[in-house]
Design a protein that fits this description.
Elements lengths: L1 E8 L3 E8 L4 E8 L4 H15 L5 E8 L3 H8 L3 E2 L2 H12 L5 E5 L4 E7 L2 E8 L7 H11 L3 H9 L12 H13 L4 H19 L10 E4 L6 H11 L3 E2 L7 H17 L14 E7 L8 E7 L2 E6 L19
Helix pairs in contact: 3-9, 5-7, 5-8, 6-7, 7-8
């Protein structure tokens, strides 16, 4: 069995997908990053190795997400692309004809507009938590409700109360006020779902021409209350793909397949890398006024990669002659 891997490294989670040559997802993993991206990548590949048959051959690897550069060095990636590209490719493949992609994760959110299969516009929110999954996690904890039950409770509401959703701090204060006024729990939860959707549309989606078909992906797509709020506010059907929570990794795998088809070879280092020991650190280069923060990755006390400099002094160096003592 020949497979392509897609690895999406984010601040909250690391997602890994295995794609066969028929462009079918044969395995997917979702792991919490927990501030240890290298170790979690190795753990994920180890789990994947256990789940898949012994006769597999990895013929291509793609990385995406905020930690895509780090992941590419560790695994030997053939394709390294940003999240917008990866999510757009995955949505186009799994939902042909898609025109709008709504993506909400734990720490950020984004909107992608596609026309004739090409990204025509996009926007991201990486600053405010009020339009992300962490907002719902915080309010669910405040209400003492498991986040898994949040959406179903919202659907039981006859009419949600309006809660200020522009800021997560103000939203929590407003939610407490509505509790004190005697509103029922279901109406408050529905109001919170609507507040998140309004925040998303007023910030990330502001000025965007949201056309159907609309795809909703990211971890928050599992929340049926948020999906219902989007459908009511936008007035269109919201489609949720089968692999909604790992779409970045799915897109990275598709992009790796494209790249390997062009080059005819892969740079993947092999599943044996799960046994290697890596170390990540940084230093300030004082070679000029830029004072760049240079990230370095070491393996067995040997630097194997550097990046972050503007001039290429470190990122284009011969690592074989460098030592960890830099």
């Amino acid at each position: 069995m020949k497979l392509y891997l897609g690895i999406d490294v984010g601040s909250v989670s690391i997602n890994i997908v295995a794609l066969n040559q028929r462009e079918e997802v044969v395995e997917s993993l979702y792991l919490r990053t927990q501030g240890q991206p290298i170790q979690k990548i190795q753990l994920g590949l180890g789990l994947l190795k256990e789940k898949l048959p012994q006769n597999i051959e990895i013929i291509g690897v793609g990385t995406t997400g905020s930690g895509r550069s780090l992941a590419s060095i560790i695994v030997g990636a053939d394709s390294v692309k940003n999240e917008i590209t990866a999510h757009a490719v995955a949505a186009s493949k799994l939902v042909p004809g898609v025109k709008t992609v709504l993506e909400i994760g734990g720490q950020d959110s984004k909107i992608i507009l596609l026309r004739q299969g090409i990204v025509s516009d996009f926007a991201m929110n990486t600053v405010c938590a009020a339009g992300t999954g962490s907002f719902l996690d915080q309010q669910a904890a405040r209400l003492g409700i498991p986040i898994e039950e949040f959406g179903n409770l919202a659907l039981r509401s006859g009419s949600g109360v309006r809660i200020a959703g522009r800021c997560s701090v103000f939203a929590e204060s407003d939610m407490i006020h509505k509790q004190q006024m005697g509103h029922c729990l279901e109406d408050i939860i529905r109001g919170l779902c609507e507040a998140l959707v309004r925040n998303y549309l007023n910030n990330v989606g502001k000025g965007k021409d949201i056309l159907a078909p609309v795809v909703f992906q990211g971890g928050v797509a599992a929340n049926v209350g948020i999906r219902d709020a989007f459908q009511r506010i936008l007035g269109v059907e919201i489609k949720i793909p089968q692999y909604y929570n790992v779409m970045g990794a799915v897109g990275a795998a598709f992009l790796a397949a494209r790249e390997v088809e062009k080059t005819g070879k892969t740079h993947f280092k092999g599943l044996e890398l799960i046994e290697d020991h890596y170390q990540a650190s940084s230093f300030e280069c004082k070679g000029c006024a830029n004072i760049c923060e240079v990230i370095k990755i070491s393996k067995s006390k040997q630097i194997i990669a550097c990046w972050g400099d503007k001039c290429g002094k470190w990122s284009e160096s011969e690592y074989s002659s460098l030592t960890v003592g830099l």
